[in-house]
Automatic annotation (TrEMBL), chain A:
It comes from Pseudotabrizicola sediminis. PANTHER family: GLYCINE BETAINE/PROLINE BETAINE TRANSPORT SYSTEM ATP-BINDING PROTEIN PROV, GLYCINE BETAINE_PROLINE BETAINE TRANSPORT SYSTEM ATP-BINDING PROTEIN PROV. InterPro entries: AAA+_ATPase, ABC_osmolyte_uptake_ATP-bind, ABC_transporter-like_ATP-bd, ABC_transporter-like_CS, Gly-betaine_transp_ATP-bd, P-loop_NTPase. This is Quaternary amine transport ATP-binding protein. PROSITE patterns: ABC_TRANSPORTER_1, ABC_TRANSPORTER_2. It comes from the Bacteria. GO terms for molecular function: ATP binding.
């Protein structure tokens, strides 16, 4: 997938909790240590981010790292204390309340950790709720909701109530609802954290399937590094309110910027992260050699090597670009430098 | 001398401070009579003439107050109309039908909805909300009312409930939402709610009587004042408990403020809000009898009338009819709360609303049949049952057979308990009591609590009500102690026995829906009027919370601790005394608190049987329509309740903090 132009840009975004936070932030020269000494809590510190059109951008951090606060700043559910948030070139922080309402109604969708389904409404009504709020007439919004429900694989349960569904099904409803208004920017706030491991895997797969059809611009929050690796085009790792490193999963695993990032990546099998593109030796691909796309991971090339090939071919956009040698793969996996 | 000790002292000096305060109080008591007589009798010249001020203020409100061209009396008239119109409608439907007065004779043009139809509709409502079981229960409750000949009165009462409940719920939602939105509004509202819930209802009956006149409208308004505060509190609480994500959702999908409240927040808080609705219903029914003093007819009037005639049987039957109404409406509202929405049916109007259709058919057919067979329209008198003569005979038999025993018991209690305590309490110098309350407040909750407890008790003295307040405290105190002495052991005995507790709970639940007046009647008949009768009635009424909270406390003890105790080889007795009771202490303290509140509210009612306390003042003010005296005495009772409540809550909080349970609470 080729990254599109930038959709969402954060510049030096701060969120400081406490009395007269903005004044203190300006006075303290944006120094987190001095803010803390004043009894204020800098939950998000000097965050610079760029989310590109059509990519899955994962913000990963442990609890208390400020990731949930940050994602709420992006949609202005929480008012940032300072900074700039540009959405398609428009600064959201200067938008009026009415403008924000319009932007949220038509261009943003959000999935919540604990689903936030309305208990008094059926699945159909829940999914249609964002459209109802916009004032769309009933037949139109129910038709659209039906479509979404089919998309997430819940057709037949339209008239069930949330309490009659399993956790996984409830989150499918949450996903369908967040997509009902056809947003271009899709926020998912730890959508799978409240689910069992097996259901979580299933929904992760479902999520990837949806994205391959819909090509939304996605900001995905998680505390689970494996989930981040599995889903992300790019990951931002947060610690104590600040972004520590931004990069592709492969960047993080191969070149961790700090010890903190290295701690996370240590247990990640490189084979599942490193893509063939980074090991390729440019050159012609001999006839009959097994070929894989450049996006494929080393692990995905495993079966070919195991069946005896010393080299596999690598293709990108249909054309061959070079080969990967088995020895290079073995060197990578056994701990050598890539 | 000041009631406020030095705040610089450390909490560790507790014993020393108590010792000093007690010594001071003792000194005052022993020698104050000669040295400082004002410590005993609050000087009349310094008295605050609060009663006169309030009386004057209300007269001014009624006669002269106006805001521009709108006189205050216009406002009250508008409010009265708002209540009166729906009440007349409900009354017409259920009890009176369409009637007209021509030449002194009531002519009924259209009869009210027949009793058969009402029972049928109630059953249908029960079926809709909770299935067949509830349908049967509803039908049984209303059939009971019909069979015992309470139908018309019950329908009059039901009409006023039907008006009061929606208004109370709407008002509670409105104020609760405002309080939730605006913290300043909540801060302003909270003390008012506290006062409204602790002040005896009698106290504000008089101003209502003056503002709205005698009649069902005034009664409904009094009911609203009594039943709205809990709904307000529950609304605020329920809204603040809606998960943060629901707010986020509302903003993310771009809800307007109104959409957020009505489409997201209130539905999310629905179950908690239905608890509030249930409270409004139950409190409205509690008010039925008291409201009948200012003109509500119906069952309340029947009970009150029976009490005046000392007709125990008639009172009991009307009282039980109130209980039947209470049970039916209570279960119905609970079922509605737990009932999830059911997908609407498709098809023509009749199919989509089967219950409404059935009810309409029932009303029309019974009306037509009723024209031919009167028994369908009105429950036939010939088929009425009455247990009244039986009860009268039973009470008479007991009185004749056990007269000497009863007299002996009464005299024993009076001579050895009631009179000495009363003398002691009346002999206490008010200054010492104010001082001790201040110290207790400071020790348990800090400077603000000390200011509150000493300030309020000082106000009681300053408005010249010390003596009557002490009689109230003495009666309430003794009754509470006895209620606790009986209730706590019962609680301990039933807490660990599942089946026994189920039975006990059913009994105390019923006892609490039974109107408090019903307790009074048999006791008055056995012991005649006086303090002893009042005490027994109060104990009987206030024992329920003592049992309930003890059981709750014992049952909520962490089972792992019990297991740990057993593993260490504790005997059951040791587990009870060393683990369970210790950990249940905060709950039991709250139970004590509730017991006191119940005792105080019952005490006001016992004024009807001739106690000489504040309740009597309130009651006399009511009969003389003197709003000043009534309110001042009512406020004094509210002050006593607030002092006890704050002190005990602070004590419970401390106990909980010491046990490290604060987070769990």
């Amino acid at each position: 997938m080729t990254p599109g132009p930038d959709t969402l840009i954060c510049r030096n975004v701060w969120k400081v909790f406490g009395a007269r936070a903005a004044e203190h932030l300006a006075a303290a020269g944006q120094d987190a240590g001095r803010l803390a000494a004043l009894g204020l809590v800098p939950a998000v510190r000097a965050v610079d981010l760029t989310v590109r059109r059509g990519e899955i951008f994962v913000i990963m951090g442990l609890s208390g790292s400020g990731k949930s606060t940050l994602v709420r700043c992006l949609s202005r559910l929480i008012e940032p204390t300072a900074g700039e948030i540009l959405f398609n070139g428009q600064n959201l922080l200067t938008a009026s309340d009415a403008e924000m309402t319009q932007i949220r109604r038509h261009r943003m969708g959000m999935v919540f950790q604990h689903f936030a389904l309305l208990p008094h409404m059926t699945v159909l009504d829940n999914v249609a709720f964002p459209l109802e709020v916009q004032g769309m007439p009933r037949p139109a919004r129910e038709a659209r909701a039906e479509e979404m429900i089919t998309l997430v694989g819940l057709s037949g349960r339209e008239h069930a109530y949330p309490r009659q569904l399993s956790g996984g099904q409830q989150q499918r409803v949450g996903i369908a609802r967040s997509l009902a208004a056809e947003p271009e920017l899709w926020f998912l706030d730890e959508p799978f954290s409240a689910l069992d491991p097996l259901i979580r895997r299933e929904l992760q797969g479902e999520f990837m399937r949806l994205q391959s059809r819909l090509h939304k611009t996605i900001v995905f929050i998680t505390h689970d590094f494996d989930e981040a690796i599995r889903l992300a085009d790019r990951i931002a790792i947060m610690k104590d309110g600040a972004v520590v490193q931004v990069g592709t999963p492969q960047d993080l695993v191969l070149n961790p910027a700090t010890d903190y990032v290295r701690e996370f990546t240590r247990a990640v099998p490189k084979a599942k992260v490193v893509r063939l593109a980074s090991l390729v030796t440019p050159g012609p691909v001999p006839e009959g050699m097994p070929c894989l796309p450049a996006r494929a991971t080393v692990a995905e090339a495993g079966p070919s090597f195991l069946s005896g090939a010393a080299h596999v071919g690598v293709t990108e956009d249909g054309g061959a670009i070079g080969t990967v040698a088995r020895d290079d793969v073995i060197r990578l996996l056994l701990g050598g430098e890539a | 001398m000041t009631a406020l000790p030095f705040p610089a002292m450390r909490p560790g000096d507790g014993r020393l401070i108590w010792g000093m305060a007690l010594a001071l109080a003792l000194a005052l008591w022993l020698w104050g009579q000669t040295l400082l007589p004002m410590a005993f009798d609050y000087p009349t010249t310094w008295q605050i003439p609060a009663a006169r001020w309030i009386g004057a203020a209300i007269t001014w409100l009624v006669k002269d107050a106006s805001l521009g061209p709108v006189a205050f009396s216009d406002v009250t008239r508008a409010v009265a109309a708002l209540v009166d119109k729906p009440y007349q409608l409900a009354l017409g439907l259920l009890a009176n039908g369409v009637q007209e007065q021509t030449g002194g004779v009531m002519v009924q043009h259209v009869p009210p909805i027949s009793w058969v139809a009402v029972i049928g509709m109630m059953a249908a409502l029960g079926h809709w909300a909770g299935g067949l079981r509830l349908a049967l229960l509803m039908a049984a409750c209303f059939a009971f009312i019909a069979v015992f000949g309470q139908w018309r009165s019950a329908m009059v009462t039901l009409a006023s409930i039907l008006v009061a409940v929606p208004l109370g719920v709407a008002g509670g939602l409105l104020f609760g939402t405002l309080a939730w939105r605006h913290p300043w509004f909540e801060r302003a509202l909270r003390p008012l709610l506290d006062l409204m819930q602790t002040m005896p209802v009698f106290a504000y009956l008089v101003p209502i009587l003056i503002l709205f006149g005698f009649g069902p409208t005034a009664a409904v308004i009094a009911t609203l004042i009594y039943a709205t505060p809990p709904m307000t509190r529950i609304t605020t609480l329920a809204l603040s408990r809606v998960p943060e994500e629901a707010h986020d959702l509302a903003r993310m999908v771009g809800c307007t403020k109104r959409q957020t409240l009505w489409r997201v927040l209130i539905p999310s808080a629905r179950e908690a809000l239905m608890v509030g609705v249930n409270q409004v219903i139950m409190l409205s029914l509690n008010m039925v009898i008291i409201a009948s003093m200012i003109g509500a007819g119906g069952l309340g009037f029947d009970v009150l009338n029976a009490l005046r005639r000392l007709d125990f049987g008639a009172g009991l039957e009307a009282g039980l009819a109130i209980v039947a109404l209470a049970i039916a409406l209570d279960r119905l509202s609970q079922a509605v709360a737990h009932r999830g929405a059911v997908p609407g049916r498709k098809g023509p109007l009749i199919r989509r609303h089967p219950y409404v259709t059935a009810a309409a058919v029932l009303v029309v057919t019974t009306f037509i049949i009723g024209l031919l067979i009167p028994a369908v329209q009105t429950y036939p008198d010939a088929a009425r049952l009455s247990t009244s003569p039986f009860w009268a005979a039973a009470v008479q038999w007991i009185n004749i057979t056990f007269f000497d025993t009863l007299e002996a018991v009464k005299t024993f209690f009076l001579v050895w308990l009631l009179v000495p305590v009363k003398r002691f309490m009346l002999g206490l110098p008010w200054l010492a009591v104010v001082l001790l309350l201040g110290v207790a407040g400071w020790r348990l909750g800090g400077g603000r609590l000390a200011l509150l407890t000493s300030g309020l008790s000082f106000l009681i003295a300053a408005t010249g009500q010390w003596e009557k307040a002490m009689i109230t405290v003495y009666l309430c105190g003794i009754s509470t102690l006895i209620a606790m002495a009986i209730g706590v052991p019962i609680g301990i005995a039933v807490a660990m026995r599942e089946r026994l507790w189920t039975v006990t709970r059913a009994v105390i639940d019923t006892a609490q829906t039974l109107p408090s007046f019903v307790y009074l009647m048999p006791i008055v008949m056995l012991f005649r009027v006086g303090d002893f009768t009042a005490m027994i009635a109060v104990v009987a009424y206030a024992i329920a919370p003592a049992i309930r909270y003890t059981v709750l406390g014992l049952q909520s003890v962490d089972p792992r601790l019990i297991e740990a105790g057993r593993a260490m080889g504790c005997t059951p007795w040791q587990i009870l005394t060393r683990i369970r009771l210790r950990l249940a202490l905060p709950e039991i303290l709250l139970g004590l608190n509730q017991t006191i509140m119940f005792a105080l509210s019952m005490l006001v009612i016992t004024a009807l049987v001739g106690t000489r306390d504040l309740g009597q003042d309130v009651y006399i003010a009511l009969t003389k329509a003197n709003p000043g005296n009534g309110l001042v005495a009512g406020l004094a009772i509210a002050f006593i309740a607030i002092i006890a409540d704050r002190l005990l809550s602070a004590a419970a909080r401390r106990a909980r903090a010491q046990l490290g349970l604060e987070g769990a609470a």
